[in-house]
Amino acid sequence: MELKIGLSGVARELNLEDVELSADELKAAVAHSLSTDETLELKTAKEGTVLINPKSLAYVEIVPEQKRTVGFGLVPNV
Prior knowledge:
- This is ATP-binding protein.
- It comes from Boudabousia tangfeifanii.
- The protein is an alpha+beta fold.
- It has a single domain (about 1-65), classed as SH3 type barrels, CATH 2.30.30.
- The chain is built from one helix and five strands.
- It has one helix at about 25-35, and strands spanning about 1-5, 15, 40-45, 50, 55-65.
- A three-stranded antiparallel beta sheet has the order 2-1-5, with no helix packed on it.
- Strand 3 (about 40-45) and strand 4 (about 50) form a beta hairpin.
């Protein structure tokens, strides 16, 4: 899963991959952080931690992992 986080006042978005939460857990964590004004803490698979002030959150986009195909796709008959 890829996570794209927009921060107010910052031109570039924050991209995270391999966050250790499911999409539902992530939605709940963001909602909790916004409602309680607590810092959003995200752990990555590489044992890194990202802390985000909820007041600076502009948006959170959750991109599900896409299956990658190898080889040739469908080739139309010529």
